[in-house]
Amino acid sequence: QVRVVESGGGLVQAGGSLRLSCTASGNTLNLNSMGWYRQAPAQRELVARITRDGITHYSDSVKGRFTISRNNALNTVYLQMNSLKSEDTAVYYCAADVLTIETIDGIETFWGQGTQVTVSS
């Protein structure tokens, strides 16, 4: 099992910045990609993902404003969010993919409990 814990959410004015952190612990030997998703209030959508080798992918809505990074030694991923907009308001969830032989696609995803980000206009 892998435990995923996020931190760093809060209330910020439009145009401001926040930095989210997420740490995976437990059975992290086969930890692979990690990513950030958000939900407000409908379906959960991808914000950004980063592979173990540092290859990143961003949704079009955050490109140029958000930066994802990770520290493999700490099993931690960060999301630096700049130029925040009211539409960025959501609960942000961290996801950690672990390689496994127990699923068809070879991946098991563990989720954090989420952290609220509220951007006031």
Description:
The protein has no helices and eleven strands. It is mainly beta and 121 residues long. Strands 2, 4, 5, 6, 9, 10 and 11 form a seven-stranded mixed sheet that branches.
Tell me the span between the first and last alpha carbons.
40 Å
Helices, by number, come to 0
- Taking pLDDT < 50 over at least 5 consecutive residues as the criterion, the unreliable ranges are none
Largest sheet: 7 strands, mixed
Strand content: over 45%
Q: What is the approximate shape?
A: elongated
Report the count of strand segments. Answer: 11
- Secondary-structure element series: EEEEEEEEEEE
Structural class by SSE content: mainly beta
What's the mean pLDDT score?
Answer: 95
* Percent in helix: under 10%
The rounded Rg comes to 14 Å
Please give a handful of descriptors for the protein shown.
mainly beta, 121 residues, 0% helix, 59% strand, four-stranded antiparallel β-sheet
Protein topology:
Blueprint lengths: L1 E6 L2 E4 L4 E9 L4 E9 L4 E7 L5 E3 L7 E6 L4 E6 L8 E10 L7 E5 L3 E6 L1
Parallel strand pairs: 2-11
Antiparallel strand pairs: 1-3, 3-8, 4-5, 4-9, 5-6, 7-8, 9-10, 9-11
